[in-house]
Amino acid sequence: MLKAFRQAMHILSSPVRxxxxxxxxxxxxxxxxxxxxxICLMGRVYRQAGPLFGREGSLLGDVGDIGRRVMRRGQxxxxxRASFGGTEQRVNTDRDGYFRIHLRTRQAPANQHWHSVAxxxxxxxxPESDTEGQVYxxxxxxxxxxxxDIDDTVVFTGVANxxxxxxxxxxxxxxxxxxxxxxSALYRGLHEGPGGGEHNPILYVSRGxxxxxxxxxxxxxxxxxxxxxxxxxREWGLSPLRPFPRRDEGHKLDLIRTxxxxxxxxxxxxxxxxxxxxxxxxxxxxxxxxxxxSAVYIRxxxxxxxxxxxxxQLAEQIAAAGSTLVLAADSFAMARHAExxxxxAPEALERILEEEEREExxxxxxxxRRVTVTGRxxxxxxxxxxxxxxxxxxxxxxxxxVVETEKNRPK
Length: 411
Hints:
Helix content: 25-40%
Number of helices: 11
Number of strands: 17
Strand content: 15-25%
Shape: globular
């Protein structure tokens, strides 16, 4: 119990812990994205107290750093200057201290992946707060844009179990926030593409709060998952008078539309899970932008046949719009389809399968395979699922369901 408390204190203090344990106005940039003509970057300015007590890394120091985190506040109406590509932009922070940079370049940046954006506070001036943000600009070799959900797609959070989800989000560290077996090899394969060197951008979307940004960064690095702009979080706006997160209707839909407009000459791959609204959102995107989405991959985290049946109907709508939805039992099921459709190198399949099998051996019970039901035909698959669910209500694995038109099948 004491060890768990110590770990929780260390994790909760991490966003304000650093070598200098700085104080005053701080610029916290989030990784951004862009093209060689324009970039977008978001960040936050907040005021942070100096070390309260205790040495860095000690239990007392962690408690003090948690106190600093609780006390820090976003600073409204602060002016931030961003410099990149021969031009600059000045923006004001909003009521929560967030700023958004949308800058058109005068000088096209080099054909590389990550680029630095110089950030400075100009009002009030605070030279010691100077920092650099990072933006990902797809190189000429990129062929697809991958947009992926995070919760219950990359990392298990247990959205259906709200108490368990909150415990994992706030009381367990990145090492304890379990990645789905094989997911890191899958995302590395999609990032590299069938040619092995495409460096396709991966943009991560989540409904979680911005306060999780540092934990997500560490989680991705620990699990060797390709980093990308983890910038599509949101401000929950919690306060004593507003104890619940702000509503986010249309949040993910608007973001994907923005990305489709920015990368207008590139096809997309959408990855999500069956637990919330990803299949519905992605279906709408495919219908609104025919020909722009190469495939939709949905990780199945639902046990009920009703949800599987609903997703099957959405899959048929997506097929009618010219794309494909795969309801996948695991990472390898997604990879198998991606390789067959030219999104993944054949040699990546073996790496994904090896990683998945190795990680399943030590995975938590909720991530392990239980009863496997096979079948490529969606109608037959649904019958098998309903039969199995009738016989065993817990611990079954839903089969892969693939619905696609004849023209979308690999030759």
